[in-house]
Every structure is written in C-alpha cells, then in structure tokens.
Model the fold of this input.
Amino acid sequence: MSATESTSYITHHLKLVGRPDQLFTEVALSLIHTTSRGCPLAVNNLALQSLVAAFATGKNLVDDTSARAAVSEVVD
Done:
C-alpha cells in the first residue's frame, strides 16, 4: 500500500470500531507506513502496538514516541 492507503486503512479500521476521531499523529502514521512498507499485516501490528504504547503512558493520541515504542516491540 502507499502511504495514503496505509493512513486510510488505519482510519477505516478505527471507524469500524466506533472511533472516527483522529487518534494518530501524521508523524506516527508515516512511521508506521515506512516501517511496515505498506504490508497490511505489519500495519495492523504496528498500529495496535502503538495504541497499546500510548495507553500505557496515559496518552489520548498516538504520537511518534508511541509509534517508535511499537516499532521497537514488533521489529526488534
């Protein structure tokens, strides 16, 4: 998937579970796309781990710090 498709993919899945609001910063979305290379399974895994990382630190928004923590968890 392209970067735009990856963002749309995440946004679509969030809407399916009742979250139409913006939960990911643009930087976080870019990092997820770059790391996943647009592979849907990798996008899913990184997005999920990013949400977990944001929750664990008490954030309401997935930022680059949460996305980097997810990359470290999933990739390393």
In short: The chain has a mean pLDDT of 96. Residues 53 and 59 are 9 Å apart (CA to CA).
